[in-house]
Structures are given as C-alpha cells and as structure tokens.
Amino acid sequence: MVELTFKLSDYMSKGIRDYHHHSLRFWISNGIGLAVFLFEIIFYWMTGTTSLLWIGLLLLFVLALSYVGSCYIRPMRFSSDKRYSKLFTLSIGDEEVSLNSEDANSQAKWEFIRKVWETDKFFYVFLDKRQFWIVPRDQFSDKGQEDLFRQIVGKHQKIQTGLIK
Question: pTM of the full predicted structure?
Fold first, then answer.
C-alpha cells in the first residue's frame, strides 16, 4: 500500500490547470475558437467590414475569459474552500483507492476506476469521465514509493500519458 498525506488545497489549482493543459477537449475547443478568430480577421482584411473585426475581437475576448475562468478563477475558488485546506491521506492499495481527511472518507474499488493518467507533475485517478483525484508526484517520499504506486496501479489500469482523452 502507498499512502501520501498532503493538503489538497496546496495542489488543487495547479492540478486543475495541469489537467486542462493536458486535456484533448481543452486544446480542441480553444483551437477551434482561435481558428474561427483567424478566419474572422482574414475576412475582415479581405472585405474591410468592421463588424467582422468586432466579432473576431469579441470571440477572442470570450476565449480569454474562458481560459482564465477554467484555469485560474475556478481552481482558486476550489483551493480556497476550507474543506480542502485539511490534510488528506490518499491510500493506494491492491483492492481500492481511498482519499480521507478528518471529516471525509471516499473510497473506490479498482474496478470502478476508469483510468489513470500521468503528467510531469501529477497522476490523475479518474473516478468517472471528468471527476478525478490528484496524486502530486512531489509527495512520493522516494523513487521506490513511486515505483510501488506504479506497480499497484499497473495491476488494474494502464497508466496513460499524453493528452487526456
């Protein structure tokens, strides 16, 4: 069994931002938005219609608001929530994964874990399509503990890398 104890609020903002930066959905939606913006600007230059310029600038503003909201404002609201400022213990065992604090206890059997994803700073243990537990890589006491984590997870799930799908 691997046990990691950390303040979830210390990692929540960085973990959610890291999730978005590694999410295929995030890159596709922002890529489409930027492509539409570029088409608006190109058509503005070709036609000189100022309404195309204003629509393009409005779209760019909406994209910027969406990025700031999803990567900074919402994660900061979560990390400032008093419920997450306590010490949490994440236990990864052969039968289940649990996340516990002094007043919360969440458990998931391995057959209900949908996927495990790895980035350079975190592991994400997905309970469903979008709900996940953050496993900060810097909280492993040493390489051996991280290897044990990989070994336990590997019995149940393939640890995936790259863009989170």
Answer: 0.85
